[in-house]
């Protein structure tokens, strides 16, 4: 029987610990003896073009031996050259349907189905390698191997028409009539490769039966013990086996990969919302395919490198908009007096006029001026926290105590700024509320100090479009014009000092910047253009203003659009000792460090009609009171 093979070697070896922790035991793949499986590169069996050839498997005492046949495709020829040059020497199997037993240190594979054989750069099984490569290149080199019957069958790589192998069976003598009947060789040559393979398996199984009841020899001899030539023997008498010490430990730094089809499945799974990460997809795939041997790694997470911070040190804070907070804290007028009293005399009465004098007539006194005053007392505002001392000691990559103090101070400043501008939003009955009697918010202040002006959107729409139904201005333009109109008209009553600033939501600024005329051109190209149209010094956005509304004394709800104020007209008073101060105390009972930051201050507008609150009427509310 003549079979042409390009190389041979061990597909897998028994009783060696593989890199994935598995140990393949003897006869685990016995039923695969004589099978033909595809040869691919690195388990990439998702494309027919990746198939390099096929291999015939032979089960032995030491493992599974394979005879490789490359096809005539470009990839097959390239792989053949790599093997002949010794560039690739390792083999690896892909098997599924595994039956495994735990051995305390890993798993023993006692059964499985080999589906393909791969050429790999580095295999998981340290004994899986190519030990013979045919380098004769068609010059009649032969290798004899015993399959079943005990008679040598030549497996050669000679070209067709070359010298007949010495071990080929002799041809039968021709019949006397001169007509040559078909010989055994002719019949054999007429068979296909699959038929030849099946015949070889049948012959071997018959030989293993020993001519008795089909039971295998209870004490089989190892290869070569009876003088026959085995697959690892060289017919020429030389040694073609690559020497490999089975006591050498496998390289622990060796990198292993899953099959390509598994990679595609894992990457697709990682993109889903339910999994989300490559690590999670690998773990899920391992759990779902625990019975498939790919020479992968059970505990894949152990091979992932440690996470490293992109920015070492303290973690970045995610906060609400803090830019306007610093503006408020820096622009308010600061006083060393915490008990604030403001006094204003209203001299605008009609009866407060100068009179013309007529000779002989009595001079009439002018009317009285109205005195308006109010007092504001301070309140303590604080924030406290705690941290276990063990955690303080264990966190070594940044100063966690100063980090916590920084967050606490930022939170305190934000709370004070919110109380000054719009009130802290807590219910009046809440014992933790920053009282409006101590920190008077600009938005909720009395009409004597803050002008509450409603924006009429519908009036602006009617004014712009009028009776021209063919004209259609966008909502952004109408809204922007209504805001600007209200801002300018309300300034007629404004009595604050200097030029006020506008504090509003980012959405309001965007609506106004997106305003377009009928030709699609933007009206305001920048915040500077918008500030000029509104006649304000600067525009500051505060996301904390979003969605706020208050209910006036007439039970009408008003949505806050923006506050116009020069913060120099707002006084924050604090005596010595009432400034922002931090404290810490150690709780010996619970091994905790406790932290406190507090301040004691008061705040109020000290000029009449020194702020403007632009609002949009919403709908009547069910109850009264102020609810920022």
Q: Please give the alpha-carbon distance between the first and last residues.
A: 96 Å
Low-confidence stretches: 137-180, 210-261, 621-628
Structural class category: alpha+beta
User: Considering DSSP H and I runs of 4 or more, what fraction of the residues is helical?
Assistant: 10-25%
Shape: elongated
Mean pLDDT: 77
Q: Number of domains in the coordinates?
A: 3
Beta-strand percentage? 25-35%
Number of helices: 12
Radius of gyration: 46 Å
Biggest sheet features: 8 strands, mixed
Q: Would you report the number of β strands?
A: 23
General description of the model:
The protein is an alpha+beta fold and 628 residues long. It folds into three domains: 7-172 and 184-249; 325-348 and 368-436 and 573-604, Major capsid protein gp5 (Major capsid protein gp5 fold, 2-Layer Sandwich), CATH 3.30.2400; 450-571 and 608-620, no CATH class. It has helices at residues 74-84, 184-189, 193-209, 260-270, 278-288, 323-331, 389-394, 400-421, 457-465, 475-490, 506-513, 527-534; strands at 7-13, 22-24, 36-41, 51-59, 63-70, 90-102, 107-120, 130-133, 142-146, 152-156, 333-335, 340-346, 370-376, 379-388, 450-454, 501-504, 539-541, 549-551, 556-565, 570-573, 581-587, 592-605, 611-620. Strands 1, 2, 3, 4, 5, 6, 7 and 8 form an eight-stranded mixed sheet that branches. Strands 15, 16, 17, 18, 19 and 23 form a six-stranded mixed sheet that branches. Strands 11, 14, 20, 21 and 22 form a five-stranded mixed sheet that branches. The protein is elongated and about 165 Å long. It starts with 6 loop residues before the first strand and ends in an 8-residue tail after the last strand. The model is unreliable at 137-180, 210-261 and 621-628 (pLDDT under 50).
